[in-house]
Amino acid sequence: MVRIICLIVLFKESDIDALKVIECLKSTGMPIKEIKKIIDWCSEGGSSLQQRYDMFLERKTAVEAQLKDKTMELINHKCEYYKTALDAGTEDIHKNNKIGSF
């Protein structure tokens, strides 16, 4: 005998919004433990507004620093790329480089 079970889950708009925030925070590298803390604060209501605001300000600063680091990493790489190409007199020196020129 084969038993087929169908499960339909209905989410409220607020559930979807919460999932979007969780996904966003996770994509910034925030640990799940910290994300859970935010969810707990949200369920507390207005008494935790300051904690949530402070946490998002901290996360914003962290993400801005990450973006700057990644941007500077690429810029430094490209400076080195073009410097070595200039020194060699050709970009062919980087033929096997996967990043290459843009």
UniProtKB/TrEMBL annotation:
UniProt cross-references to InterPro entries, sorted A to Z: DNA-bd_dom_put_sf (IPR009061), MerR-type_HTH_dom (IPR000551)
Domain HTH merR-type: residue ranges: 10-41
Entry protein name: HTH merR-type domain-containing protein
Taxonomic lineage from the root: Bacteria, Bacillati, Bacillota, Bacilli, Bacillales
